[in-house]
Specification:
This protein is an alpha/beta fold. The protein is built from 10 helices and 10 strands. The strands form 2 sheets. The protein has an 8-stranded parallel beta barrel with strand order 3-4-5-6-7-8-9-10, surrounded by 6 helices.
Length: 330
């Protein structure tokens, strides 16, 4: 393909929010490369998705060391996207990566040791062909490694200039409080927490979101569409080729109960009355909370990405709509 050149109007329609008590603004919708950017995927398709995202003001691209499949391939493929033109806008984009889950064999390729985290970051930088990432995350807490060791590794990554900010992901409120205290003492405050959050998965609301607000930490939500349940795909049951229909999928057929399908249909009615798709309304619902800086979406095509960005169009959810949604979810 021809070398990519960005749209001159790329910031005209995107909304941005401050990440916690920091100087960093993030787009309200960010692009996650967890799926669709691996070695099994089509470069022409996913590169167009990435370029279209930036053309529409999506400045944040979220990765992890083991995104693929195969492990590492999403970062390698993102490097190609950078070489094909996105890289000339490096100072206009936020690149994040993580380490904490299984990556390579042996005792040093998993969890939260200093050895693993810093070696993984070096490997990620080589795969992407860049000198630094903007955000480096501990992808999950390690029950065996002292939290001080894990946070010190994040701080060292920042002090060495290999990351600009430190973040955590999948931490509960107590571990978040302790991690934030350690990072603050190290002089590298925690910028952001990445957590699973959707209409069907609200574990963050009672304790984590209040803790993030107290700490001045931004929140970015992943899996906002509940593995595709909060789309029009399951309005009439489980379609062939869907995640629930695949034996290796994370979404199991038994998760899609008649009661849940009724809720999906009722939510879809509210979305339709708003002139939005269910997916658009589900994203807008998450962004109703000012403590949520951004929401991470996956996209299998540029068209799907554009549809998701439609969540930012139209009015905020009204008090009446929010009440009806709560009644359905209850």
């Amino acid at each position: 393909m021809d070398t990519y050149t960005a749209s001159a109007s790329r910031y005209d329609t995107m909304q941005y929010a401050r990440c916690g008590r920091s100087g960093l603004l993030l787009p309200r919708i960010s692009l996650g490369l967890w799926h669709n950017f691996g070695s099994v995927d089509d470069y022409a398709v996913y590169s167009r998705t990435a370029f279209t995202a930036f053309d529409r003001g999506v400045t944040h691209f979220d990765l992890a060391n083991n995104y693929g499949p195969v492990y590492g391939s999403a970062e390698e493929n993102f490097s190609r996207i950078l070489r094909d033109g996105l890289g000339r806008y490096r100072d206009e984009i936020i690149i994040s990566t993580k380490a904490g889950y299984d990556m390579w064999p042996g005792p040093y390729g998993n969890w939260g040791s200093r050895k693993y985290l810093l070696a993984s970051l070096d490997q990620s930088l080589r795969r992407m062909g860049i000198d630094y990432v903007d955000i480096f995350y501990s992808h999950r807490p390690d029950p065996e490694t002292p939290l001080e060791e894990t946070m010190e590794a994040l701080s060292d990554a920042v002090r060495r200039g290999k990351a600009l900010y430190a973040g955590i992901s999948n931490y509960d409120d107590e571990h978040t409080r302790r991690a934030a205290d350690i990072l603050r003492r190290n002089g590298t405050p925690c910028l952001i927490h990445q957590a699973r959050y959707s209409m069907f998965d609200r574990w963050t609301e009672p304790r984590l979101l209040p803790e993030l607000e107290r700490q001045g930490i931004g929140m970015i939500a992943f899996s906002p569409l509940a593995q595709g349940l909060l789309t029009d795909r399951y309005l009439h049951g489980i379609p062939d080729g869907s995640r629930a229909a695949r034996p290796t999928g994370r979404l199991r057929p038994e998760d899609i109960t008649p009661e849940k399908l009724q809720r999906i249909a009722a939510l879809n009615d509210i979305a339709a009355a708003r002139g939005q798709s269910l997916a658009q309304m589900a994203l807008r619902w998450i962004l109703r909370d000012a403590r949520v800086t951004s929401v991470l979406i996956g996209a299998s095509s540029a068209g799907q990405l554009i549809d998701s960005l439609g969540a930012l169009d139209g009015p905020d959810l009204s008090a009446e709509e929010l009440e009806r949604i709560e009644q359905i979810l209850a």
